[in-house]
Amino acid sequence: MANVSKPDETRRLRFGPFSVDLQAGELYRRRKKIKVQLLPLQLLGALLEKPGEVITREELKSKLWAADTFVDFEHGLNTAIKKLRQALGDNPAKPGLIETLPKKGYRFIGRLEANGAKPPADPPRTTALAGKIFSVFAEDEIECVLAPADKASLDEWQRLTTLGDDVGIAMMITNNRLLLIEVGKPVRALSADGPQGWLEARILEGEHYGKTALLPSKSLRAPK
What we know:
The protein is of the alpha+beta class and about 220 residues long. About 25% of the residues lie in helices and about 25% in strands. It contains 5 helices and 15 strands.
């Protein structure tokens, strides 16, 4: 009897109910393979190389299209993003996995894991930030940043966001499991040992004075 090769799951990167084998070009939701074209899958791979970081449209152009390729890049990228979101069931208005930064690029905001394999590019550890004071920052004139109270709250928030459960998210805010931190408020970084891309911080001003919460490292700026 001929041997039937099995997928090498150690190569798969996992986020939420999804896993992807970039080498084999396969995307799965739990155990079910999802049909997705090559370009959207390559786009996903580019975003997973730097989870939590903005990948500009120009960077994606250089990664996904050869220099001598003559295509309508803007249309091609927009179509690839749309098809990738359809495959992942990600709502662009309330993204849980892929965030759009208008006129800049895209960012993978899901929680990336690995099964026996190292993620493509671990962001540098930020332990040196512990103890320093920062101000809360947000792009696109957002007034508040959402900050989960702890790791369990972060996991629950990401799950509800993926499901589009606005009522559940509102209940988390009501129960102070998801804090609304005003942009510009000072916080003190306490630890970088939390989930990838997140810092534990103490709020130093405002409604939640004295409380601790998890803040994305990208939302902290050194005060001027």
